[in-house]
Amino acid sequence: MKAISISFLFFFISVSILAQKDTLQLGDRYAEDQIYATISYAQFFNQPTTIFKSNFSYGLSAGYLKDISLNKKGTIAMAIGFGYGFDYFNHKLTVQEVNSTTLFSDQTGNESNIFTSQNLELPFELRWRTSNATKYDFWRIYAGIKFLYNLSNNFKFIDTNNSVFNSSNVSSYNKLQYGLTLSTGYDEFNFHIFYGLSPVFKDSTLNGENINTKILKVGLVFYLL
Asked: Mean pLDDT in the chain?
């Protein structure tokens, strides 16, 4: 029933926006309210020197953006929104929670080392595009900042003896993170990048070295409606 209700809500929003666009004339003030969805190749960077590059990792997200036009032509605007994001990292930094303390190690010989997280996304964008009130296929450059509030995180690794270690919502995880975003392209298909500015872990060290691990994502963003 919940899924049906959500589907109906998205359908109602879509029909309402399309109906509004049908009444617009060239030169009218308008907005490009949108549902967005991203799929990205993800990597950690600024890792400690003893940690090598992560294996294949990815991120998925979706949400809604409210567009606020800043000029009559609608070519310059800003947008604020909210959404949900899921990240999957196949990485080399071993993380374990023991007695409410987060322990880090560089045991890169582990059979498996997976990190997953779920986040509430709060994006803010400044927008430039070649659209108008009656032209829905256009070039765009959207730059901004995205805040992430962590809902859950899980670190799971399997050592060389096939023993499984699982730690959830570790104490050193930085629950509020943020980064720069850039989306550029034509119509629904657009290149997207997220460059993390805040570290994944707070007040953490490995072998006496500060852990300043951050997140980089490169992929595609799709704008619907």
From this structure: 83
